[in-house]
Design goal:
With 363 residues, the protein is of the alpha/beta class. It has helices at 55-63, 112-115, 157-160, 163-175, 191-203, 215-224, 237-244, 260-268, 290-294, 310-318, 324-327, 337-347, and strands at 7-8, 14-15, 17-25, 28-35, 43-52, 79-87, 99-102, 105-106, 126-127, 140-144, 148-150, 183-187, 207-211, 228-230, 250-255, 270-278, 299-302, 328-333, 353-357. Strands 5, 6, 7, 10, 11, 18 and 19 form a seven-stranded mixed sheet that branches. Strands 14-13-12-15-16-17 form a six-stranded parallel sheet, with helices on both faces. A hairpin with a 2-residue loop joins strand 3 and strand 4 (28-35). The two termini are 25 Å apart.
Length: 363
């Protein structure tokens, strides 16, 4: 049976094969035929509408496997939205036709982290598109009901595909020492950085300083709510930030780039008793002198995905706090996910968020 030849029985069971973009190694992602996943009693099957290419997907493509287990050919993609087409026999909270998003972290619920309410750092994690075979770069996904959230009829599937990255930045802000009226610096104006800028503006930051090497992304940062945008190649970012904050430094700096220069600059741009919050994944380790932080009582902290915030993020997006037209720069078909997706993000700095669909009718 070909990937497009899907059968549906009278009880709405979808069977057969489907197309999916699977990871085989760095610079080796292939769209192949794979069996459609099957539901169990407490799960639902979702027909994918849109799935975004994430920065972590790019790290896997360029330097992987990093999070993906070695030798595992996972179906990639974890920022996705879709419609329920099949439900397990014990499912009572969802119906066929419901429009949904799926939280990709699948906790074990038995380890110490899960039992203490910190499932985002589960000790035996599974994660759609990375540490779990199913992912959003396919035609269907099966998920347990506790990972599935309905979206309002007023929210588009494209907007819903941004719920996951917005959850990342919401968690970062919530877990930082940021307060209403604070000054902040955002190093890296990729998708996460730009969504963070929009979210910080909505959260009441008085001054948002974006640091980004790409001209187009600096322009988008300003349109997204940044009060200033610095090119660190042409300008000493730390000196400029201190000049913009009356010699004090920012209250919180967010590193969304994950390289040695941004780590150093973000730490040095923070005021005494301020905070460097690390959001990005890192392909290489960094070195630094701990005295820089210790002698000024600066805090270096990290944030990992999100924890119990999907409903709030869905509400925020539905209320219109985001300018998704600045974030979503291209929409492509699943068949073109490598050349027009991963390679495009890698080589064209004007691209921010590329959404992928398995449906030709969506384009």
């Amino acid at each position: 049976m070909k990937a497009t030849e899907i059968q549906a029985t009278k009880d709405s069971t979808v069977v057969g094969n489907m197309k999916a973009a699977k990871f085989f190694g760095a610079k080796d992602i292939r769209v192949v035929d794979t069996p459609i996943p099957t539901v169990d009693a407490n799960s639902v099957k979702v027909e994918i509408e849109w799935c975004g290419i994430c920065g972590s997907d790019m790290h896997e493509y360029v330097a992987g496997p990093m999070v993906i287990p070695p030798g595992s050919n996972v179906t990639m993609g974890h920022e996705f939205s879709g419609k329920i087409v099949e439900i397990g026999e014990s499912v009572t909270t969802f119906a066929i036709g419901d429009r949904v998003v799926i939280e990709p972290m699948v906790p074990c619920w038995t380890c110490n982290s899960c039992r203490t309410g910190n499932y985002q750092v589960c000790e035996k994690p599974q994660f759609y598109g990375l540490i779990l075979n199913d992912g959003g770069f396919g035609e269907y996904v099966v998920a347990p009901v506790d990972r599935v959230y309905k979206i309002p009829d007023t929210m588009s599937y494209e907007q819903a595909a941004l719920v996951e990255p917005v959850a990342v930045v919401t968690q970062a802000i919530r877990s930082s020492q940021f307060k209403y009226g604070d000054t902040v610096a955002v190093f890296g104006a990729g998708p996460i950085g730009l969504l963070l800028i929009q979210s910080l503006k909505a959260a009441g930051a008085s001054k948002i300083i974006a640091v980004e090497v790409a001209d187009h992304r600096r322009e988008v940062a300003l349109k997204s709510g940044a009060t200033h945008a610095i090119n660190p190649i042409d300008t000493n970012a730390v000196e400029t930030i201190f000049g913009l904050t009356n010699g004090r430094g920012v209250d919180v700096a967010f590193d969304c780039a994950g390289v040695q220069p941004t780590f150093e600059a973000s730490l040095n741009s923070v005021r005494n008793n301020g905070e460097l919050k690390i959001i990005s994944l890192w392909e290489k380790p960094v070195t630094f002198n701990p005295n820089v932080a210790m002698m000024t009582n600066k805090r270096i902290s990290t944030t990992m995905t999100y924890n119990n915030i999907y409903p709030e993020v869905i509400d925020l997006i539905n209320q219109g706090i985001l300018k998704e037209d600045l974030i979503i720069t291209k929409k492509i078909h699943l068949d073109d996910v490598v050349e027009e997706g991963f390679e495009e993000v890698l080589n064209d700095r004007s691209q921010v968020k590329i959404l992928v669909t398995p449906k030709r009718s969506n384009l």
